[in-house]
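hey m, so remember when u said the tokens were messed up on ur end? i reran from scratch. heres the input so u can diff it against urs
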Amino acid sequence: MAGDQPGRSRRTTERKGDVRERAILDACEALLVQQGYDAMTVGDIAQGAGITRGALYFYFGSKQEVVTALVARTVEHLWKRSEATARTEEPRQAIAAALERTVELWNEHGPVMRTAIDLSLTVPEIGELWKHTADLFVAAITAVLERAGVQAGAAPDQAPAMARALCWMIERTFYHASQESREKLQEASATCEHIWLTSAGLIA
């Protein structure tokens, strides 16, 4: 029996660790909403998570590490959305669904998304996460454009290049709209949908 105790203890610790990490990330996201990245401190995050600063350092070495983990958690949702878009067969439905999911994500996690964009040039880990996210979204847009009849290839007027331009247009448009209101996000989505449909040759 004595030999079994450490295993049970480790499993319990792991479960507690998962709960604490989630609490830390949730607290960080709430603080991004309330006061932004620059103003919040490790102490603020720890207090929001209901733990001591020392306990937080058991999981994360800095505020930047907490935010990086939070961005990773958030973009995982975006990856799943882009994969669903790539699997949708009918181009019009795929475009509408992709932008609907993007609006949902920005409504739910706008401050995290903006922080990821702001830090992507100065924090390599976040930059890599954001680049990978963009690459997945570009692949999904490319697939939709090709199903709509846009030619595959490397030329500026072919699907991959058009998809890259659409991806970064959507990112920047949603970034600004999310700072204003949910209504502005819906308007931004409608504009991006129109441009995407036009690029795909689905409307004149």
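this time it looks ok to me. The CA atoms of residues 110 and 179 lie 8 Å apart. if urs says something different then somethings off w ur setup not the seq
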